[in-house]
Amino acid sequence: MNIFPISFVLSACNCGPDSNCTFSGLFQQKKCICKPGYWVVNGKCVGPCDEQPCQNGGTCNVGEIGFICNCVAPFSGPRCENGPCTSNPCQNNGTCEVSEYSYRCNCNKPFKGTNCEIECDCGPYGMCGLESGRKRCFCDSNYAEKNGKCEYCSCGENSKSCRYNLLGEKECNCSSAYAQNRGYCEDCNCGPYGSCSFEYDRKRCNCKSFAVEMNGVCVVMESTTLEGSTSAMTTALPLTTQCKF
């Protein structure tokens, strides 16, 4: 039987940093005296914070019963386990990242939005962006947005621009003396006293109140009373004549 010197036994008495270690009894048995809130496991004083229970950068403090986590904003919960990403707010397989006191979603294409909730794809002929939380297509030249995609849109060389309305119908912004007909800007001129349009593929002059249509042109009419007669004669003035009131 090997008998170790008492000095060796005393030097081997260690119960950890949060404890006092002594030997007692005839055989000088090791005894750990732990701080409040600690307990002995395998000859060591262990505490509730030894396993680092606080998550997300929280600091652990030993309480009267168990541990207390001091959480870093924006985390909360008994173990600081609750944060902005806990509820998985990012949709369509987006990944959530804590950003200061809130969160940020890293979205997979073609999704965008705060929670990756908007599918943002305008096709190969334009770029997709968000304005006030709504999808908007920025289309290439000769293309316009139609039903969420950039579709070919041309009204001919005599147009300023081409667009689609909410019903998906083409609308042409034609140059002066042209009007939309069958999806293209065609020659349409009623003179300076009226506007021109097409109706059922036929030219129509919308003349001002003091003019009438004559031979496809709006002309000013002047009434002249013949001397010694009660009848009146109406004369069409040239286009360059100004109307006098």
Automatic annotation (TrEMBL):
One of its GO terms (cellular component) is cytoplasm. Transmembrane segments: none annotated. It is found in: Cytoplasm; Secreted. GO terms for biological process: establishment or maintenance of epithelial cell apical/basal polarity; heterophilic cell-cell adhesion via plasma membrane cell adhesion molecules. InterPro entries: EGF, Notch_Cell-Fate_Det. The keyword Repeat applies. Pfam families: EGF (PF00008). Residues 46-78, 81-117 form the EGF-like domain. Its main location: cytoplasm. Keywords: Calcium, Cytoplasm, Disulfide bond, EGF-like domain, Glycoprotein, Repeat, Secreted, Signal. Gene3D superfamilies: Laminin. Disulfide bonds join 107-116. PANTHER family: CRUMBS FAMILY MEMBER, DROSOPHILA CRUMBS HOMOLOG. This is EGF-like domain-containing protein. It comes from Araneus ventricosus (Orbweaver spider).
